[in-house]
Amino acid sequence: MEQESKFYLRLKSLSSDLGKSINQVEKELGYSRNALHNYNENHMPSALRLIELSDYFEVSPNYLIGKSDVLNSNKLCLNDMFDNLSLNEKMELFSICTRWVISKGEA
């Protein structure tokens, strides 16, 4: 028996994080039954399917296929930008966010 591919392990993990089974994800995306289970033994998806799945799970294609451990490159970019702010800029951003949350009545 072959070891499950990193791609398939990540599909299972992301599905589980959403509280869904692989079969539920297949159904929601309009895939045939067991279409995603076929990737469990080092088979890779087509480019189109990879994009559909990354959009569905809101992760990067590189994360899905195991070339990156970064779930979403946009989040990494924001983290990098925040890390490059001075302490005063971070405090100002915090103040702006706090005012915004209060104005929306979400506090």
TrEMBL record:
It comes from the Bacteria. InterPro entries: Cro/C1-type_HTH (IPR001387), Lambda_DNA-bd_dom_sf (IPR010982). Signal peptide: none annotated. Residues 11-64 form the HTH cro/C1-type domain. This is Cro/Cl family transcriptional regulator. It comes from Lactococcus lactis subsp. cremoris.
